[in-house]
Amino acid sequence: MVQRSKRSMSPGRAREMQAVTRDFHLTVRRWCGEIPISSQIYIALDVLNFALNLANSQLNVAAGSNEPDKFHAMYRMDVDAGEE
Q1: Cα–Cα separations (whole angstroms), residue 41 to 22, 25, 32, 45, 46
Q2: Could you tell me if residue 47 is inside a domain?
């Protein structure tokens, strides 16, 4: 059996995956806007949002970019309005 630690990802494949991840992330964020914050579904979507942020960050590294991802900087959910 092939060990997963020996696999590698090409930068082109990482960029392809990143595009799909971003599209799904926008869908998740849209769902979050439709659901009351106090619901358990919102909490689950918030965790999914965090996981998508993390995945996109790692895909950004795999794609060979050292720049912070501007897409996620615009849509941070971990700060209140007005905070930096």
Answers
A1: 21, 16, 9, 6, 9
A2: yes
